[in-house]
Design a protein that fits this description.
Radius of gyration: 18 Å
Strand order of the largest sheet: 1-3-2
Distance between the termini: 24 Å
Helix content: 55-70%
Structural class: mainly alpha
Number of strands: 3
Order of helices and strands: HHEHHEEHHH
Largest sheet: 3 strands, antiparallel
Length: about 140
C-alpha cells in the first residue's frame, strides 16, 4: 500500500492547487484513459454518478479549459467530451510525478532487490493481465 501511495503527496498537491473537486479529478483521469471523445453519459457510468452531476462537473472543466465538448457527428443530441491540451498536461503531469517517485524508489533499492523486482514484474507487464483490467473498467 505504501508503494502505491508514493508520489501521491506532490501529485495531489498539484491538483489541489488547481481547486478541482474529487469528481472533476476522477473525470479527467477517466478521459485520459479513454484517449478518444466520450459521451457524457458514459463518463457518468464510469464514475458511478448521475448524468446531471457529471454534466455539472464537465461544465466546470470546460469553463476552466481542461475539457473540450463537441456534438456527436452521428447524433447531435449526444455531447462528446475529451481532454483539452491543458487537461492532457495535467493528467500526464500527475502520472509523470508518480512515475518519477517509483523510479526514485527503485533506484534506492539494492541492485539485487531491484533486479528481482524487475524480473517479477516483467512477465506481468508483458502479459494481458493489466490490459484486460483497463478494458474491464471501460
Amino acid at each position: 500500500m505504501r508503494l502505491m501511495g508514493m508520489g501521491e503527496g506532490e501529485a495531489m498537491d498539484n491538483l489541489v492547487a488547481m481547486d478541482l473537486s474529487f469528481t472533476q479529478v476522477r473525470a479527467l483521469f477517466v478521459l485520459a484513459q479513454c484517449g478518444a471523445p466520450v459521451a457524457i453519459h458514459e463518463v457518468a457510468e464510469r464514475l458511478g454518478l448521475s448524468v446531471a452531476a457529471t454534466g455539472r462537473s464537465v461544465d466546470q472543466l470546460v469553463n476552466q479549459g481542461l475539457l473540450e465538448r463537441r456534438e456527436d457527428l452521428r447524433d447531435r443530441r449526444i455531447k462528446r467530451i475529451s481532454l483539452s491540451e491543458a487537461g492532457r498536461t495535467i493528467a500526464s503531469g500527475h502520472l509523470e510525478t508518480k512515475r518519477n517517485e517509483l523510479r526514485a524508489f527503485a533506484a534506492r533499492l539494492p541492485e539485487s532487490d531491484r533486479n528481482q523486482l524487475f524480473d517479477s514484474l516483467k512477465s506481468i507487464l508483458a502479459g494481458d493481465t493489466l490490459r484486460a483490467h483497463c478494458q474491464e473498467s471501460r
